[in-house]
Write a structure and sequence with these properties.
Keywords: Angiogenesis, Developmental protein, Differentiation, Growth factor, Heparin-binding, Mitogen, Nucleus, Secreted. The structure is a single chain. The chain has 172 residues and is of the alpha+beta class. Helix content is 13%, strand content 29%. It is built from one helix and ten strands, in the order αββββββββββ. The strands form three sheets. Strands 4, 5, 6, 7, 8 and 9 form a six-stranded antiparallel β-sheet that branches. Strands 1-10 form a two-stranded antiparallel sheet. Strands 2-3 form a two-stranded antiparallel sheet. Strand 6 and strand 7 form a beta hairpin.
Length: 172
């Protein structure tokens, strides 16, 4: 019996040691510097952002227009969300090859270069939807109206359905 408890103690020590190693692992993030593009392979799997307001997917069109569409097979709704810092992302339309940006008027548009208007604070809300708040223009959110048009960031605020997005897989 004594041998069994010694073995159990050693297993427990190894388990705790492994947990300490996992807890002390390093987290790396990309610098928040503006760049034309990020190195290949640094994006997670493609996502679609489903808006609670009207059931639209956020779409970045090749001409730079941003809107919502219900068609889940539209190639312009496949997005890459890249963390640039803890809780901070840039959102890139894969087909359009454009980054989501918010202008000083609150207009959403797609741009070829990642500028300071392309950084958003991503937050998981209590209702399990995500919100994307402009880093440059605090308190302005990425949002879609019930009609599928983008909603100006200047007209957005906490508690609105228009700002709630559910990230979904866009594989295939």
């Amino acid at each position: 019996r004594a041998g069994q408890s010694e073995g159990a103690e050693k297993k427990e020590e190894k388990k705790q040691e492994g947990e300490r190693e996992m807890a002390s692992g390093e987290i790396s993030t990309l610098p928040s510097a503006t760049a034309d593009s990020f190195p290949p392979g640094h994006f997670k799997e493609p996502k679609r952002l489903y808006c609670k307001n009207g059931g639209y997917f956020l779409r970045i069109n090749p001409d730079g227009r941003v809107d919502g569409i219900r068609e889940k097979n539209d190639p312009n709704i496949r997005l890459q969300l890249q963390a640039t810092a803890v809780g901070e992302v840039v959102i890139k339309g894969i087909s359009a090859n454009r980054y989501l940006a918010m202008s000083s008027e609150g207009r959403l548009f797609g741009t070829r270069r990642a500028t300071d208007e392309c950084y958003f604070n991503e937050r998981l809300e209590a209702n399990n939807y995500n919100t994307y708040k402009s880093k440059k223009y605090p308190n302005w959110y990425v949002a879609l109206k019930r009609t599928g048009q983008y909603k100006s960031g200047a007209n957005t605020g906490p508690g609105q359905k228009a700002i709630l997005f559910l990230p979904m897989s866009a594989k295939g």
